[in-house]
Amino acid sequence: MRVLVTGVAGFAGRYATRELVRRGHEVIGLDRIPAPTDLPLTLRFIGDLTRPEIFIECLRDAKPDACLHLAGLAFVPQGVAQPRVNFELNTLGVLNLLEAARQGAPDLRILVVTTAQIYGPGQMGRETPVEEDAPLRPDSLYTIAKAAADETALLYARQFHLQVLTARPHNHTGPGQSPAFAVPAFAHQIHRMVRGEIPAVLRTGNPDSLRDFTDVRDIVKAYALLLEGGRPGQAYNIASGQLVRMGDIIDRLTLLAKINFKRETNPDLIRPTDSSIRVSTQRIRQETGWTPEIELDTTLQDLWQSLSTD
User: Fold this and answer.
1) Is residue 272 over pLDDT 60?
2) CATH homologous superfamily of domain 2-173+213-241+278-293?
């Protein structure tokens, strides 16, 4: 397939491009900033997804068979702090893509990536994992924007018969992720301690919060499988299924670093909703055969090694 990847210069976009090419697909990239020159892209587009014409131009000129829509705000605090930008990118950007497809490329397969956080914290503590048909109860401006995008995408599949499906991933991490996110933030701080650049004090959010982390390389395999064989009109959860305490992740990084340091909780880093809910991944496993393969310890080791070789 000829696949348009939006947000191609981002963390997941870079990994997704390489995974799609590895699987024999041709990739066209779209981002608001230039994509890395080492990415194997056939065409490169630069543009703002809040402008409807950028999608019209991409679909007209590149004629893709499919689109992996990753572009948008991925950092929750930024979405809360900049509500207008949040909705412009995370909701309006999806609408612009869907309208461009409806008017000019109705056969385009589209995977809109949102987040498992749209189920809301009210599902926490359930005995059974949350399935895709559960009601959405977003509890922040960020998750409201993402939920609106998800529901809009599925509505376009039903109402206009577009080949649209959505992915709802939980947290993912790996080498190259921005230190704005928790796991690379820990790793970067500890790495700077090892180098003697900062005092041996790690500042964290709530160390007892529980999160579901999947390696980004497993996540993008799920995206590729959904583009290849997912059912239009369906949503798909993507997660490891394992909740890990954030303090335990710090412990594992400490073993890799071989350093002792103090830990301080920074109230500014604690989110109102501080733990992940458990979600069911039965649908994607049954329909595509996807399963996460990379253990968290391997992810952390690769992340640490990537900092050590910089």
Assistant:
1) no
2) NAD(P)-binding Rossmann-like Domain (3.40.50.720)
